[in-house]
Amino acid sequence: MRLLAAFLLLLVLRSAEPRRGPRSGAAERGSRGNVRGRGRAGVMRRQTQECKEYMDAGEKYLDCQDKQLTSVMQDWPKDINHLLLARNKIQVLRDNMFFQFTQLKSLDLQQNHISMVEDDAFNGLSQLTTLLLQHNRLKTASEEILLPLPRLTYLRLYENPWSCQCSLDSLVRKLQVPSSRNLGNFAKCAEPLSLKGQKLKKLKVDSLCVDDNQVSTGGKEGGHPRPPLIKVKPEATSLCHTYMFPKPQLDCNTKGLDHIPSDLPSDIVKMDLSSNIIKHLRPKQFLLSKDLKLLNLSSNSLQRVDRAAFGGLLYLRELDLSNNSLHYFQYGVLEDLYFLRKLSLANNPWICDYNIHYLIYWLKHHPGVSYTGLFCSEPREFRGWRVEDYVKTYNGECPKDKQTGGVDTGQGVEGESDNEAQEALGETEHLLQHLKQRKRKRFEIIRLS
Fold it and tell me: Which part of the chain is the LRRCT domain (predicted)?
């Protein structure tokens, strides 16, 4: 009986081996993609730009790992359920960055360079249950980043250099709520030194701001505790609106700005700074906005643009400087705009003198740039002229006097009959005779022709 049972068991094991192989192979392939799979029969794959899109167990995945990405792309599918962005180069999670992915259930952002998460970065992700942010460069964040995620169940925050100070207070309190048992496990403080290595889940929240109130001279300034440090949002994103779709855009229209905001985002494609009161563009203010393709500075009060003001804008295609107070450009101002295609210059008081020549010279040597609105405002005699027409006449020669054998033929002077013949006179004699007859004016300059 035992022998029969052993024989039957051996047959069962042998029959199971062929089925085990393909399953393990599919699992191995799935693990390499950080996604559990069910084999080739259950997976449909196609290429989406550089990313791989596929179906598994009835849900859509978009695998964009290891693609050197700095942001999400506007043409990715909107109906994906799982977005894999691990091991890229994303630095900042902007407001509304994932707004179009309303069906997203998991978002993998581990092993990027993320140092800041704006409060509304996860707007629209009401179905998200899993968020992976481990192995990044986060030092602080607020509870507000989690408010758009009512279904969030798993949150990974470990291996980030968390600065356990007042700015982290609201997030720590959220993580320590009993219902958040799978949020932020294993995340630890990196600073200050007194809290280094302590888990965020086990911190005494009331002590987070104590160190902020102390200074090296006894913790008081003028006998009063120093107020707690407050996290300051970068100027550009606190004053302006950031939109990621249909393309990354910074909208600073009509914000009363009198200068270019600091900390401009590096991944912005379109920047609208119109209808403000900016008067002066200083060097290298757009240096970090290397992806910028459209810059709108119209309807400001621009009077001066320094050399290197557009430094770094190598890929800028459109520049709108209309409705400002520009008179001319200094030599070299436009030299960084290698790929510019459209330049709007209307309604500026362009002064047609020698200083305007650089602008025409640059446009002449960049025939691919279309431009509008370049008309003289001053001086009065050239008002309304096209600037390029003025420049053409600037170096024009006066027409040479017509001469016949070196002798002036002479013309009838005022008061003499046309029929009276006048003897040929030299230039000097003719001029003296003319001055004697015109006694009303003391001096007169006449042209001999």
Answer: 160-210, 348-399
